[in-house]
Amino acid sequence: GCYVHTSSLVSRGNAVDRHACFIGSSLKSKLLFGAIESGFCVRIDGTDENSGVVKLAEGDHDTDAKKQECLGKCAVYSGATACEVIWGQSNRGCYAHTSVLVNRGNGVDRHNCWVSGALKAKDVLSPMESGFCVRADGSDENSGVIKVADGDFDTDAKKQTCLSLCSVYPGVTGCETISFQGNRGCYVHTSTLVNRGNGVANHNCWIAAKIRAKSIFGSIEAGFCVRSEGTDENTGVVKLAEGDHDTDAKKTECLGRCAVYAGAT
Description:
With 265 residues, this protein is of the alpha+beta class. It is built from 6 helices and 14 strands. It has helices at residues 25-32, 64-75, 117-124, 156-167, 209-216, 248-259; strands at residues 37-38, 41-42, 53-58, 82-86, 93-97, 104-105, 111-115, 129-130, 133-134, 145-150, 174-178, 185-189, 196-197, 203-207. The strands form 4 sheets. The protein has a 5-stranded antiparallel beta sheet. The chain has a 5-stranded antiparallel beta sheet with strand order 8-14-11-12-10. A hairpin with a 6-residue loop joins strand 4 and strand 5. The longest helix has 12 residues, at 64-75.
């Protein structure tokens, strides 16, 4: 038969034979894009990215309903790497980005930006490790593990798909793929005890940058970063995000971004 779903909890097909599933673009967008950010979509250094921008709809997109409508359009646009809405000015509308250089919103008023999970994964998750995700002492961590997709995840494309799903999952602390065995699939970890991959075959593990940061950076120190004699160091400084970072959550978020930035000192 033919069935329609109306629950907002449906998320994916489970690969069972003789079935096919189609998820609404409004729900699919939650799996494809990260959280809403203020401002228009820019590169990591804050410069504008005007290549690969396609206008999908006209008009103001300032309400939640219109933003969700735009996200739905972006979710089904082939190759979308980010979604952007603008209101209250002449270039108002809904836009899809296709450039892989977009990284974040820049905080500018009357704009919102959503970066795809595939790109956001670079900020959220550390580089791939072989094996399944375990605690620091090598013991398994089975609490807070959620299967988000079925099937083998042995190719680069499938691993990237899994990373995208993990990167936008609330509270993600790790991402894991399994191939060629009964429990094959893509899994998200939410326990803060996951620490590394254990090298076991047919598995790969990515630890959240906010977890990895604990082993990369020392303890917090008051003040801005200076040279040993106390003079300022303004070369080699890259702004990774806009806004106040006074809460523990925002500081941890910043640490995560720094932890996966190549060459961070």
